[in-house]
């Protein structure tokens, strides 16, 4: 982190790792019809709970359809002490919102920052927004998010995404990403957290299609656990840029 310039959001990270080549195996384990499945299946729990509809039945359960793809990405790993200070500062605004009711403030921060960065990177990376994906790591051992893209060609992708994570470039993207969410065309309805998507448990606090939501192919959490107030605060309270937190 020593090579990066000063930025309030960068103070949350203890490491930013450029991943010029990565390999991903995508396995289709199940599907749902008409409505999405309840909740979010974390990768660690994937084999520990039933899926809505299984791909195969009877004697043919020994295999699942899968594909192997190659690409690139940027891994943002959070500093636990910095996140703890953020949690203390944001507690005041979280209580009356879905962000506070979830009991996992860190999850809102990580997921919101991942969406912010993907929306800011897409115009410069050389890939369309639906081509970018996220991987959220939210456990006691690691708090991080990976933004990546991949393709079926064994040669992988062209390196445009990794270039955006280099010192001198990443700082300006973080500033642009933050500026984009300071105001939304649906405010004050959006920032007050009263937008309904019409499905159970999909009330969004400070997030809508104009400011934070991503295409279905990009978000692993169904566009849930998002709140602009986690980053910019409300009326000057609880934002990352509040000087007393760092």
Compact summary:
With 246 residues, this protein is of the alpha+beta class. It contains 6 helices and 6 strands. The strands form 2 sheets. Strands 1-2-4-3 form a 4-stranded antiparallel β-sheet.
Low-confidence stretches: 39-51, 197-202, 242-246
Q: What sort of overall outline do the alpha carbons produce when their principal axes are compared?
A: globular
Instruction: Give the count of helical stretches.
Output: 6
Spatial arrangement of strands, main beta sheet: 1-2-4-3
* Distance between the amino and carboxyl termini: 16 Å
Structural class: alpha+beta
- The overall average pLDDT, rounded, is 78
Radius of gyration: 18 Å
The helix/strand order is EEHHHEEHHEEH
For the sheet with most strands, the description reads: 4 strands, antiparallel
Residues in helix, %: 10-25%
Strand content: 15-25%
How many strands in all? 6
Describe this structure in words.
This protein is of the alpha+beta class and 246 residues long. 24% of the residues lie in helices and 20% in strands. Helix 3 crosses helix 5. It is globular and about 50 Å long. It starts with 12 loop residues before the first strand and ends in a 14-residue tail after the last helix. The C terminus is likely disordered.
Summarize the SSE layout with pairings.
Blueprint: E1 13-27, E2 66-78, H1 80-94, H2 98-101, H3 105-125, E3 132-138, E4 143-151, H4 160-163, H5 170-181, E5 195-196, E6 203-204, H6 229-232
């Amino acid at each position: 982190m020593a090579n990066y310039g000063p930025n309030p959001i960068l103070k949350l990270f203890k490491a930013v790792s450029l991943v010029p080549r990565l390999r991903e195996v995508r396995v289709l384990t199940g599907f749902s019809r008409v409505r999405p499945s309840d909740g979010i299946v974390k990768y660690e729990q994937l084999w520990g709970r039933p899926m809505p509809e299984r791909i195969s039945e009877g004697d043919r359960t020994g295999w699942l359809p899968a594909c192997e793809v190659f690409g690139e990405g940027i891994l943002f790993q959070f500093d636990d002490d910095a996140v703890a200070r953020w949690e203390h500062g944001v507690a005041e605004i979280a209580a009356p919102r879905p962000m506070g009711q979830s009991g996992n403030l860190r999850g809102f921060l990580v997921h919101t920052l991942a969406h912010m960065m993907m929306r800011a990177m897409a115009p410069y990376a050389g890939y369309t927004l639906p081509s970018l994906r996220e991987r959220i790591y939210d456990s006691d051992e690691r708090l991080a998010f990976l933004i990546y893209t991949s393709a079926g060609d064994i040669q992988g992708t062209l390196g445009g995404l990794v270039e955006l994570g280099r010192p001198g470039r990443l700082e300006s993207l973080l500033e642009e990403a933050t500026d984009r969410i300071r105001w939304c065309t649906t405010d004050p309805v959006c920032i007050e957290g009263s937008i309904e998507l019409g499905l159970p448990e999909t009330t969004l606090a400070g997030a809508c299609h104009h400011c934070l939501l991503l295409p279905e192919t990009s978000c692993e959490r169904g566009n849930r656990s998002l709140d602009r107030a986690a980053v910019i605060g409300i009326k000057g309270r609880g934002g990352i840029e509040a000087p007393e937190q760092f």
